[in-house]
Amino acid sequence: KQWYQRRVRGLVATFMEDGVRMWYQWKEQSNYINHHWGCGTFLSTMFVVYNLFGQLIPSVLVLARKYVKVSVGLLFGVVFIQTVGYGILFDVRFLLRNVSLLGGLVLLLAESMGEAKTMFAGVPTLGENRPQNYMQLAGRVLICLMFLTLLGEMSFNNAFTEFVRAIELIVGLPLMICVCIGYKTKLASCCLVFWLFFLNIYLNPFWMYSSSRAMHDFVKYDFFQTLSVIGGLLYVVTNGPGGVSFDEHKKNW
Fold first, then answer.
1. What is the longest distance spanned by two Cα atoms in the chain?
2. For a 10 Å CB count at each end of the chain, is N or C smaller?
3. What 8-state DSSP symbol labels residue 90?
4. CB 113 within 8 A of CB 228
5. Which among 26, 139, 123 has a CA at the least distance from the CA of 72?
6. Neighbours of 201 (CB within 10 A)
7. CB-based contacts of 233: which residues, under 8 Å, 6+ apart?
């Protein structure tokens, strides 16, 4: 149970942080949505209310292992609403980061399903044909999409920072591919967890910025999103890649 809570804390970290931010920035968030969409005060307030309670309550329920499927569905809805509401749909970098969050939620949902039924009732199937295994495959691929956002950040304005980002890609890309195809999955995921953890502290030190600066919120947002992706990778470390993977097929060779 303690190991479960450690993984889930990382996975839902960005949702809990964003839910708290909605409370402290209620007026700012409501005014932004109203100005961006011209939808009126009532609808913009309802947007903030949904993002506040639609993130905090499901996150607490997931931590308590209660109504996990419903909670994951609500968090899916929050990601979709925010993608449309904040115009993330047209920003490739933020869109891919949001999609990588969905990967962690898919893995959480797959774990909650347990032993799912076969995809075709009444037809004998191998273990890899369970919907749960396909969800684990989708979750692994979606989580790894976060690395694609690093490509757009290679601006070469600061030589040392861009050197670190280049190393990040050189080390991270092979590990990402291993996780996607399910080869040496637990080892690759474990390496990515440590790699992302240290890079996250170095690249997203939001505590070094004044809370009154806009950069503070942007860097803090990236920090907790990366933390949630780390939580998703911990699920892979614990539960393995699932039936649709090289690791699983090697057992039959």
1. 62
2. C
3. G
4. no
5. 139
6. 12
7. 143, 179, 189, 192, 193, 196
